[in-house]
Amino acid sequence: MTFVGRSLGSAEEAAGPSAPHPRLPPAEPSGRQALTTLTLVSKTMTLSSISLIRDLQELALQISAVPQHADALRAAFQGQSIAHAFITHLDANRHVCAMAATVANIKAQVVPQDGLGATVESVSELVLRAQRRIVLTELDALRDIASEPSTRGRLTALAFSPFEQLEDWIGHVGHEVNGIAQWWIDYRGQLDERAEYRAALRKAHAAMRYMAERSKATPFLLDAMVRTDWPALQAPCSRISVALTIPIDVDPDMPIVVVVPRSSEVAAGGPS
Asked: Which of 67, 146, 211, 254 could cross-link to 166 by cystine, CB 3.0-4.6 Å?
């Protein structure tokens, strides 16, 4: 008996079919033409960053539990109890269905309004789009703070270097997340460039984490996150940091739950 669970490598399988997407012009971070038309209409449709972050954290936990289910399935199918194997199979299937529901929730919050088209080719891509959506939404909140004359004095005490003011930091982070999206979007939908698409997604996940943890944007982000006396500044910066560092990096072509028979089982015709 061999079990191969439903693949969540494709967000479209989990959340339904999508329409063709518009290809965007290359962005500056990829060394090509600067991205100037990619915008987010976050003020047209209010996004709950907190809700989306919770869904991403839930997906991360669900994905981390997959090896446990795979090991349980393998052990059950090697045993003598058909009833135990069936129950274990049902448990794994429920887990995969829960992941599919989480993916669908994330897609519903992200895809209709993120400006990157209706096509979603992988969970890995969807996570990156969700991170970008959160960051750009929170940048809008920070932009409101930067535009208030009453906050000028307080802002000068923050760690902006190498930026001169908050508007410069906002512009830099917005440009970076849009540029990172451009790395993979040029390969989306190209069957002969699937390897490049996968590599670009991996690079993008690493770049998102780097932006929060070790980039020139990090000092201000860390400073703002401890400003408990300024919740309007602390909250959006904390959400940006959390969103960028959620540990989800799924191979877009890899099924999430798979039990592969051992070589000895294959030679013997598999367990019965």
From this structure: 146
